[in-house]
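Design job #97: recover the sequence.
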């Protein structure tokens, strides 16, 4: 059974940093790309970042480019999201996601990030 569990969210002041983690189990982690998405209240879920199966390729949403970094540790079946220079508009629930097949898509439960002074 596939499980994705996010952690590391919290309250941070503008300009601050957080590191999110997504620990996974139940599938061959090193064979699949991993994604981070976020959803703010009243808004659609938004793509944040992705990393290829071996971490050799990454991509970012326009709103986070240059501030966020995605990485993965295949030995720990874990993907990370380092977030720097956080701004109030980054406030959202952040979700970890993977796609095993077009029909088999898995999401974590999310972790809340709040950026406020």
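Job complete. Output follows.
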């Amino acid at each position: 059974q596939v499980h994705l569990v996010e952690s590391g969210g919290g309250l941070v002041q503008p300009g601050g940093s957080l590191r999110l983690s997504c620990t996974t189990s139940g599938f061959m982690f090193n064979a699949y790309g991993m994604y981070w998405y976020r959803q703010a209240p009243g808004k659609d879920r938004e793509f944040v970042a992705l990393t290829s199966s071996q971490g050799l390729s990454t991509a970012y949403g326009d709103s986070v480019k240059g501030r966020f970094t995605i990485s993965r540790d295949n030995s720990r079946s874990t993907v990370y999201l380092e977030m720097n220079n956080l701004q109030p508009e980054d406030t959202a629930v952040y979700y970890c996601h993977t796609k095993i097949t077009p029909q088999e898509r898995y999401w974590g439960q999310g972790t809340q990030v709040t950026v406020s002074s």
